[in-house]
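Bumping with the actual sequence this time:
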Amino acid sequence: MGSGLWSSRLTWLLIAIGSIVLSVLFFLPASWLGAVLEKQTQGRLSLGDVQGSFWHGSAFVGVASGAEKPVTPLFAGRFSWQISPLIFLGQLDAQLSNSESLSAPVHVQGSLSEWQVSPAQLALPTERLEGLGAPLNTIGPTGKLSLSWNHLHFSRDNRMLQAAGQLQLHLTEMASRLSPIRPLGSYVMNFDLQGANASLNLMTEKGPMMLSGSGDITNGHFQFSGKAWAQQGQEAKLANLLNLLGQRRKDGDQDIIALEFK
């Protein structure tokens, strides 16, 4: 058999293999994205009721509860995504949407080593706060939680994730089952992302329960120092609730509750 015939057959074989590979890649199941999410969150989050493909699909984001149990939804509504095939060329171009939880579609653009995230606001489930343990599981907080951000910039440096930008955690019209006063107040915690670390600041937008403080996150370690107190005339009504938050101290002439997390 001539070399030309072998060359022709080899060419067609390579074309066939290439077609199969491309078909597999372009029709990757959306479940692959769920596996990526679980790996990146160390099993804390997963995708439920996954539909579509890796490139264009939808699902709800929930708490991974084991292989034998269904995923419990964490956010309202379904998240839908679109991922550009340009990722094969090292270019990242994706969009994430959820009309019930996101204020606007989130665009992620850049390269695999450096990318930007467009501004948006994400509604958070207040009931999940109790899962953080004491004293929140005793206080039983209710209200509206949301996380907003400006343009965020991410990069990988020696496998370490670096971030730059500002985040704001809004706690609006918060209340507690232990207090007859509703609402207790509205608060905002600002995060300034600085590479692998972040600094944070808590302040009260309105009372009657006042909160303030600052802290940082360094190498994954969270520390915070702040205080809580009642507006004048509300001390007796808030005494029991404040005592659950920390140790009572004097700050000048004012009685406060020290908030210390280290």
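The tokens above came from a reply further down the thread. Residues 119-261 form one domain.
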